[in-house]
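For the sake of transparency, this paper describes our internal protein records without simplification. Because each token names a local backbone shape, the row as a whole describes the fold. One such record is reproduced below, unchanged from the form in which we store it:
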Amino acid sequence: MSTELKDATAAPSPWEQATLFINGKKVEWRAELVLLREQEYEVTVEAPPEIARALNLGLADNGALETVASPEFGAWVAPANGKFTWKITPDAGKSGRITLVFFSREVLVPWEHRSLVISSNLADEADVKINGVDVPAGGNWFFWDKPQTVTLTPKPGSPLAGLPVTLTCAIKSGLRPLVVSQPQFGSEQTRYSWAVGGYSGSGTFQLTLSGKGMTTPITLAVSKLLSNNLADEVDVMIDGKEASDAEVVYLRNAKHKITLAPKLNSPLAGYPLSLQWIRGDGVVPVDLTFQPQLDTETDVHSWDVTGSATEAGTFELGIVGAGFNAPMILPVSRQISAKYFLDGKEFSGFKDVVNGRMYRFHVEVLGGISRVHVENSPGELGFNPPLNRWFDLSSGGVTWGFTPNVNDFVTETVRFNYSSVYFARDTISFAIAPT
């Protein structure tokens, strides 16, 4: 293995008539040898007799390394079948540069070969960072149109600088994620810096850096590519149902669960996101309870939101995460409170009523909700207007009249549904005894 030395001004040398081989492979003129630590190499020279009748292999610079040769360095070697042959083994545990030199009695100037001694494992010679930070065990996150810089830095004392290194990319999963590099993937580079970015699709990919002639590359942890629009990556679920444009109604201190479900092939799972307050009208964040708290990053992607027992109004929430261009706005939430009155007196839960007496039943709703669905069972009370339908709440309330008329003990349950999509239900019961 060798790398070419650029020196266009070098004068012609009689040694150009000789040919050097490493493990049977020809080394181009003035190319630098690259030798892997602890591996044995066969060094062969073919030269005409007028250049060399015998050769002496020396070590002009050992680079503080222990390099072994057979025949030993400094011994004169006669050709066999026109070839001079040595076996050399570089140091097992250190990297560096050495200079091999061939001496001939027929040529005054010796023939020098700078040689690089390195590990077969690129990780022994260099460290990799992405945007200046070590690659985490869980891999890096990439977002569309936001390239990140992959750098390879030789470790102190490593002679790696100048050896060509190639960056490659393997798509591991997803819907045609487009990942590109500048310089291009698969091209040999000696500057060791690449701008890597994704521009469409979502999925995972793996980067690998390979040193020329080295047998073990650096394979980075699998990276994830995400859209810069969070809505491309997830579906929003509220109480286990896919979110729609319908308002999310919070009746007093009711609780709703907001969950993000990654779309097919999205690698979003595990990415830190937080719930954010966007705006409120009539309510402020301290009126409600959030678990996890607002603006607190979590990789679980599930939040419990509990309404206010006293306030009414509307509010909007959003999901945010570093790398996404904007918050993902959730459906409008409406905080309401409902009060129930029987003949002008407020009550809750359960009320005894007398058979044969006329009652005036009223519901008052704060928070601006437009309608309520009211139903009763087992249907022993006759309400006016009749129940089991939607009622308009634009005036803030609805009033019914009813007169119990039963022949047995009855409990009549009246249910108020304030949303046709999400759970927002209240129940009132009347106990009636026959006269």
Remarks:
- The chain has no helices and 41 strands.
